[in-house]
Amino acid sequence: MTKILMVISGADSLRLADGSTHPTGYWAEEVAASHQVLTAAGVQVSIATPGGVRPTVDVLSLDERGGVPEADARRFRACLDGLADQLSAPLALSDVRLADYDAVHLPGGHAPMADLAQDADLGRLLNEADAAGTTVAALCHGVAALLSAERQDGTFTFAGRTLTSFSDAEERQGGLGDNTPYYLETRLRERGAQVRTGPAWSSTVVVDGSLITGQNPQSSTATAEAVLKALGER
Predict the structure, then answer these.
(1) Distance between start and end Cα atoms, the chain
(2) How far is Cα 6 from Cα 27, in angstroms, rounded to an integer?
(3) What GO MF terms are annotated (predicted)?
(4) What is the side-by-side order of every strand in the sheet holding 211-214?
(5) By CB neighbour count within 10 A (0-12 exposed, 13-18 middle, 19+ buried), where does 57 fall?
(6) Strand bridging mode 21-23 / 103-106
(7) Helix (H), strand (E), coil (C) string for 145-158
(8) Domain spans of the chain?
(9) Within 10 Å of residue 32's Cβ, how many Cβ atoms?
(10) Which end of the chain is more exposed for a tag (fewer CB within 10 A), N or C?
């Protein structure tokens, strides 16, 4: 059976540019829709977080204030309720062996900017995955988690790779704006990635070899489908 490691942020707050603290967590659609697509294809999905902490869902991702219609929010809640056992007792990233999995999947929400982007255990796994050609998928602000991976000389492991992420335009239109700790698209470009974004809020997926990235929550399903295609599971 194909096995995928879904790495979810354990952060529930984010330090903003003005020094204030902003409540955050994972984005419901990015976990729920991804998990549904993958498991419907017969894939076994294991969930891990830094330290094995129970992840927090961003309340805005289940609320019309976050641009999520109530009907969709009910669907995402139902899915997350079905994952309650896994979410309440995730694996600890430090205990994970990459060899046990066929791919790594990184959903977003702003939370990965607070922990996964600097997580040494995740950086180790991503470096191993890159060296082995193991599929790595990252979605929206989950692409910030890729920043944890550096080569021995301190350069970004994914420098030179073509990818997408939550765009600077989207951050200004419906994100944290200028109070974001950093604009992810800009940071990735600064670290040497070749960033290709689609129109704001479009379903946009970029595949570069073993690296698969999705731009935003609207790209959740298409990103998971690209992972299945890469693994030959469709």
Answers:
(1) 14
(2) 13
(3) glyoxalase III activity; transferase activity
(4) 91-92, 44-49, 3-7, 103-106, 135-139, 211-214, 205-208
(5) buried
(6) unpaired
(7) HHHHCECCCCCECC
(8) 3-231
(9) 26
(10) N
Q: What are the two backbone dihedrals, phi and then psi, of residue 210, each rounded to the nearest 5 degrees? A: -85, 0
**β-pair type (3-7, 103-106):** parallel
CA–CA separation, 184 vs 130, rounded Å? Answer: 21
Q: State how far the Cα of 90 lies from the Cα of 225, in Å rounded to an integer.
A: 24
- Contact between 105 and 4 under an 8 Å Cβ cutoff? The reply is yes
pLDDT in tens, the chain (234 residues): 899 999 999 999 999 999 999 999 999 999 999 999 999 999 999 999 999 999 999 999 999 888 899 999 999 999 999 999 999 999 999 999 999 999 999 999 999 999 999 999 999 999 999 999 999 999 999 999 999 999 999 999 999 999 999 999 999 999 999 999 999 999 999 999 999 999 999 999 999 999 999 999 999 999 999 999 999 954
For tokens 């939550």, the residue is: 166
Cα separation, 22 vs 130, whole angstroms: 33
